[in-house]
Request: fold
Amino acid sequence: VVLCAEYGQSIQTLCGWAIHHKRHAQEVVDVWFQQLTKSPKERKLLFLYLANDIVQNCKRKNIDEFKKEFSRVLPDALSHTYKSALEDLKTVKAIDRILAIWLQREVFSKEFITKLQSYRPKGLRAGESESGEGGTSPNNKRVRTSSDSGGPDAETVIRLLVNLERGSALQDTKMKQQLQNLPPEVWNVTSVDKISDRKRLEGLLKSIDTTYEQISNHRIRLQTEYTERTKVANLLKEFVSHQKQQLKHVEAKILEYQGKLQKVHDVRGRLQSHLTSLPDLTGGGSLAPLPEPGSLFGGGE
Reply:
């Protein structure tokens, strides 16, 4: 949870970790609430997305521990988050959407959702947002598009890639080092039969128990990372496809503006040619002087 606050650690990774440690649900939720209240306002919504993932996954798996613990702190958490988002209609709308999903999917009771909704800032219309559009599900967030043309924007792609690498289980050098430092008996079943010292066997058993939990947690992280990398890979395919479409569009525009430029160039040449063909009326001496009035009307005088 601290990683979620400081580094934007993957929500799915933290959700998987939390559910695996459901026996520590109270401690996890307490830390979640502490970090939410301490985090800057732009990160508070991230914690609600994490809570949403946990309670929805727990509902699907019939795990009650986290629903009970989140019910204990969510009123204060929602009150705090709504207050911090008074000037941020987009965040308010996102919170509204989370509560609507919980109500629709019966994650919490209708009475409890109504209580949470009562902390919403007064004077804001239900469904109001900066853009005036409907919200999106935090579990199925719409990726922002560039030029509303259906392709994911570069900022979103970069952020997802950075978050993947930052919290990558695959690149966890600390875990690799811990596994390398384990005694060889951990990996060799036949070597256990050769140990006759009881204290050594008890110590090895504790070491194996710890190793088992570490490897189990790491496997969950790897599975989650695999799922997320698959999603990002698909997003990158969509991004590249969109960029190819944009490339064709730009190429067509280049040809279009080359034609416009040529037309302007032709008109400019025609104007210059026409200008040089006109008589010079600036008095530069190229024309004969006009006759005197007397010579026109005086006859032979």
Observations:
- The longest helix spans residues 198-277.
- DSSP finds twelve helices and no strands in the chain.
- The radius of gyration is 36 Å.
